[in-house]
Design brief:
Blueprint (H helix, E strand, L loop, with lengths): L20 H9 L13 H14 L3 E5 L2 H12 L5 E5 L4 H10 L6 E5 L15 E7 L11 H10 L3 E5 L4 H4 L9 E4 L14 E5 L2 H14 L5 H11 L2 H20 L6 E3 L9 H7 L7 E5 L4 H10 L15 E3 L11 H6 L6 E5 L5 H12 L1
Parallel strand pairs: 2-3, 2-4, 4-5, 5-6
Antiparallel strand pairs: 1-7, 6-7, 8-9, 9-11, 10-11
Helix pairs in contact: 2-8, 3-7, 9-13, 11-13
Length: about 375
């Protein structure tokens, strides 16, 4: 009986059988010809990796157990003990914690580059600098990096550019096409899209880098499980549709929030007064994404009242699900930065990050109106 499923089944197995020694030799002699052990590769994790690889236009990719595992794999593929990393100061707090607390123990040092100096790297480059880490759209103030300009600057100094494309997704921006060497996503967010998966992916533009990523994934045990991979692939199929609706809703909310007396500032690339609005429009395929941040009064009680009153934006320290939510950068994603770093990045008591879902926009507008009243 021939079975031809339309959707790839879940290969919920840790190991695959061999008929004899000939098949074993085939496995090692012809890479990719079959599977042996799910840490080394599984049809579901490979399907996810290849799907994102196609989206981003890469030469190869790996699927990992989380977005943090993806960042680690990307940096480990470019660095070894004694090397130096340049990192955009506007970066996810978990990324800076990885660099400061763990990679530093491996002898990899880091210098943080202010956003305004990202395209003037000469003063920061050391003889051991190997890589620059940046985000397409920064977390949480939604600053937009000119990736083509940054890639040119990196390559002039012989550096690899690693881009975290989580906030944008490949629907908005494809960093490899703009010159990046590696692009990674927290698949947990927009790619899976339904707040039920924890996963990551890294895509390389060079086959040698792709092979190095695969080696790191196997030896460090980073490979994503079959079930999570299957769920992420299912979510990926609706990514284009979801990103359109996320972006439509977020723009409407940002325009509304600009008019509210209780809101001191709105950070959203889709607003004409955003400093990188033109760049975001050109680099973002006409869409601006579903993330925005607002600044209320710098008083804990004001923030708490807003959180209690809102019914459609539960306080949940993550982002990008089909259901809207809010997060608090000072107490979650950027909690472990020093007070000086938080002040430099303008992450204050009144800053709230909104992840705008795909619900009917009029319901979201009504909820924010009553929460701010």
């Amino acid at each position: 009986m021939h079975i031809h499923p339309k959707i790839t089944p879940i290969y919920q197995t840790s190991v695959f059988k061999f008929e004899d020694l000939n098949e074993l030799e085939q496995y090692f002699g012809e890479p990719g010809s079959r599977y042996m052990y799910s840490r080394n590769g599984n049809p579901n994790s490979d399907e996810l990796a290849e799907a994102v690889n196609q989206w981003e236009g890469g030469a190869g990719a790996i699927a990992t157990g989380s977005g943090m595992a993806a960042i680690f794999a990307a940096l480990a593929a470019c660095c070894q003990t004694g090397d130096h990393v340049l990192c955009a100061a506007d970066i996810y707090g978990g990324s800076s914690s990885l660099l400061n607390q763990e990679l530093s123990r491996m002898g990899i040092t880091v210098t943080y580059v202010p956003f305004e100096q990202l395209y003037e790297l000469e003063q920061f480059v050391q003889p051991t600098t190997r890589v620059v880490l940046a985000e397409t759209i920064s977390n949480p103030l939604l600053r937009v990096a000119d990736l083509q300009r940054l890639a040119t600057e990196c390559h002039q100094h012989g550096l690899k550019l690693v881009v975290d494309n989580t906030f944008a997704s490949p629907v908005l921006t494809r960093p490899l096409a703009l010159g990046a060497d590696l692009v990674m996503h927290s698949v947990t967010k927009y790619i899976a899209g339904h707040s039920d998966v924890t996963a990551g992916v890294v895509v390389a533009t060079d086959p040698e880098l792709a092979a190095r990523l695969k080696q790191i994934s196997i030896l460090y045990g980073l490979t994503l499980s079959p079930m999570e991979s299957w769920l992420a692939v299912r979510g990926l199929k609706t990514l284009r549709l979801r990103m359109r609706e996320h972006s439509h809703n977020a723009l409407a909310l940002a325009q509304f929030l600009q008019e509210q007396p209780a809101v001191r500032a709105v950070y959203y690339p889709g607003l004409p007064d955003h400093p990188q609005h033109g760049l975001a429009q050109a680099q973002g395929s006409g869409l601006f994404g579903g993330m925005l941040s607002i600044l209320l009064a710098d008083e804990t009680e004001v923030v708490n009242r807003f959180m209690h009153r809102s019914q459609r934006f539960p306080f949940a320290p993550s982002l990008a699900g089909v259901d809207s939510s809010m997060s608090y950068p000072l107490g979650t994603s950027h909690r472990y930065l020093t007070p000086e770093q938080q002040q430099q990045l303008r992450i204050s008591t009144g800053l709230i990050r909104l992840s705008v879902g795909i619900e009917p926009v009029e319901e979201l507008l009504a909820d924010l109106a009553q929460a701010l009243r």
